[in-house]
């Protein structure tokens, strides 16, 4: 990892995964509201999507582990060399990737074996996030102040995402909890990019002063702006998906839309009474 | 902010907002108990109230951001000037206001678009409070002991309010949770005033010794007294609103009151059996 | 407080209150299991008990405040004297008593006004405990190591009791949560006595070395033994109350006991099928 | 304890207990899914299993207390000797064993007395774990960095297990929560072995440098690998138990299996609709 690319890669993974989950959550919610469309509705298609997601997650984890171990002079699977531990940082990162890989495996299993409880995936996600947070917490001994700070922020975001995943595991089908978790994962992704720019400025940009406390104060609000940015993405996705579903609906069965609107109006007037 | 007015303004905002929410919660609860009155009862009027609240929140946030940026020699939207960050304190405060503005936007959206889940507002409130707490936590580097202490207390109150908001988001319609959250917001409001008096004593009052530990011990119980004060306000509001609702009821339909009392008595006797 | 009696008094209060609550919880649970007895069963008698409890709580709070303010050279309601705060420790204790008094007031109100939600009392108890924990946390500046430690333990027990009370407020009618909360309150009571013996050894006993870390290690398991002791009391109460209820039942309606046993057996055999 | 065996013994106890609980949870879940088998299904047999578990737990606790008190020059029930506390470490361990013994007692009571609430066992388990975590937290004063670290990790795992037990107590019959708790207990068991190997390397292995921070970084991922290992055990148990149940089913009633499969298929097709 200790490089720009090493931080940009997981950042991109988290961003893409969470973006897809945001789209999926909204799509599921909107489809449910407009009950007649069976886009993503059948159990079989949902399971196929889960299966593909699981395989992609496993691929991501394997590529991450491979990159850590063999690129840029990684430890190459050697844990102990010449009387001391061999590049523990690389092993830390591999362990994190491994647990996300386990989550991918649980996704594959849950989508193929019916008798497994569906919330297993949520539990494994929460586990993977807690393990990641735990490792980041024990990761930054003896570094500069700002380096520690940006990793602590990462740790905070990861642990919050883990807690929200765990709440998802305990409750069922709360679309806002899903979006909250995805937004925190996306925040993690963009924050990985921020860390890459702060610690390894590319193309000869000037280095950040890692001891200046003003930088720390700036980065603490910067994290909030990243978070506001994920909200913006969720908002735009929401508008786009709703429009898409309505457009498909209109093309497929224009007569039913009118009916839908009527029933909606009736429901509302009933609620008002 | 760094002035008496800069602390009194958000204090007033929080106090007024939470006072209104206390009144609203009690009104809703009392109206529900006396089922026949439709004061605030129709969905349309509730939505109109939410809309107005949202617009007021947005206005408050914008006025706060404007004041921070352009009054008292604020940063004037310039983030980086002459090789260093430009007045990060002001930007911190703007970020907090911005997230409360987002909550206002979500209120407006939820009151105009029916398909949005109603608990979105609670989630955004909890988010805004967590962001505020996070920023306050990273806000007081290098200040005096008492200055840090009063901001830590603010941070504690804000985070507790955020947790209660999040619980409100997870559960539904618990009037006591609503009042608890409002009381914590009101505590925040009055505490802002207390901070203003401690750090920027107006009209030439003697300055507080920011290093004296006795002041800290006093302020820690002072916070509890503020909290007791919010209880008093809730109690008085409760009595007043109940009297108001009963008085309206008596004027509107004096015959029904008698009926209500009878049914109440019957219910009680049934419960006793 | 700063004396043996000052710690023994609240300790006795907490012990007696929690002992009564343990008896009450078990009595309610056993009576419910044996549905036909209406001991404590009518709503009216429950409310009368609540009313008396509330009045006793208010009396305890007032006696505590009075003792703190006027006995042993207390502050006598003077907060600020000769340019400095006047005996803030006493004011700290008064604030704690005050919030327990508020809980008593809420008990009285809930038992007289039917429209108030019943869980208000639980919320006020949790509030009183959180306030107590908060004040203890800010109470021990500049004291000896062991003095701080025993107060931290108090603070821990109080906050745990506050969390359990809050869970009771969120859930309904879980007898084990009630007993857990009562056991933590009883632990607090016996720990107050322990603190009194450690810090103010009576009758010329040798003083504890407040800097010796072995004392700290002993007191940390001592807390656990206190807790085991509350379990023993709960166990004995349980046996005694069950025996009492069955004895009353047998005396009042000996024929029904046989019926009860039969129905019990039937239920069990049904469950086994 | 302060020896290899003193850490290996509780490690083995926790490993065996949690392994049995993993098997039991999976067996219960699989049996429920295949409703017709009454393996472990009758209330009487469940109670008998609980009774035996309780007795084994009590035996484990007593053997642990006995070993601590009388083997290897333990305190032999003498708490205070020659003006100072006598081997408080041993008393710490005894207190932990004692609370697990209490849990065994509650298991025995719940399985013999029908009127006790079943979740009492969960509460006592959570209590025992919290007490253990609390004692470990106050256990390592003045030791080397790595010694403190491995005990902190133990403390973390124990407290997490305690929280999960408490969640089990609050919710009902969530097989994944049960497995999560068992996996954390198994992690505790294997970690005890790890601690034994780190602090008391057997057979003249080289000693670990207790001040080297690299060792700490290695042990932090080592904990994660232990956790991954418990997952593997759960996975293998799951496959084995499912195969066992199906095999028993096939041998007992081969005709019903076909029926089961048909109904399963029907259910699925219904869900897809």
From TrEMBL, chains A, B, C, D:
Cited Pfam families? DUF716
Query: Which residues lie in coiled coils?
Result: none
Q: Where are the transmembrane segments?
A: 12-30, 51-70, 90-108, 120-137, 149-167, 179-197, 217-245
**What are the record's GO terms for cellular component?**
membrane
Q: Where in the cell is it found?
A: Membrane
Q: Record keywords: Protein transport included?
A: no
- Please give the InterPro entries that the UniProt record associates with this protein: DUF716, TMEM45
Q: Which domain of life is it from?
A: Eukaryota
- Give the keywords, sorted: Membrane, Transmembrane, Transmembrane helix
Q: What is this protein called?
A: Transmembrane protein 45A-like isoform X1
């Amino acid at each position: 990892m200790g490089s720009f690319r090493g931080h940009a890669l997981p950042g991109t993974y988290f961003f893409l995964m969470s973006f897809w989950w945001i789209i999926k959550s909204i799509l599921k919610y909107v489809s449910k509201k407009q009950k007649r469309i069976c886009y993503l509705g059948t159990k079989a298609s949902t399971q196929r999507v889960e299966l593909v997601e699981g395989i992609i997650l496993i691929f991501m984890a394997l590529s991450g582990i491979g990159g850590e171990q063999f690129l840029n002079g990684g430890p190459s699977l050697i844990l102990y060399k010449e009387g001391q531990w061999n590049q523990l940082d690389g092993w830390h990162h591999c362990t994190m990737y491994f647990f996300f890989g386990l989550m991918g495996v649980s996704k594959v299993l849950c989508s193929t074996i019916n008798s497994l409880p569906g919330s297993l995936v949520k539990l494994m996600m929460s586990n993977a996030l807690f393990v990641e947070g735990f490792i980041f917490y024990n990761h930054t001994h003896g570094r500069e102040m700002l380096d520690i700070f940006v990793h602590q922020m990462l740790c905070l975001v990861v642990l919050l995402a883990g807690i929200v995943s765990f709440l998802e595991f305990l409750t069922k089908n709360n679309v806002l909890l899903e979006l909250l978790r995805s937004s925190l994962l996306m925040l993690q992704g963009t924050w990985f990019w921020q860390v890459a720019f702060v610690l390894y400025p590319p193309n000869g940009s000037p280095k950040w002063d890692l001891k200046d406390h003003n930088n720390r104060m700036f980065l603490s609000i910067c994290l909030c702006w990243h978070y506001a940015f994920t909200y913006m993405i969720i908002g735009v996705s929401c508008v786009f998906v709703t429009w898409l579903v309505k457009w498909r609906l209109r093309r497929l069965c224009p007569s039913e839309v009118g009916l839908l609107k009527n029933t909606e109006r009736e429901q509302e007037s009933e609620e008002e009474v």
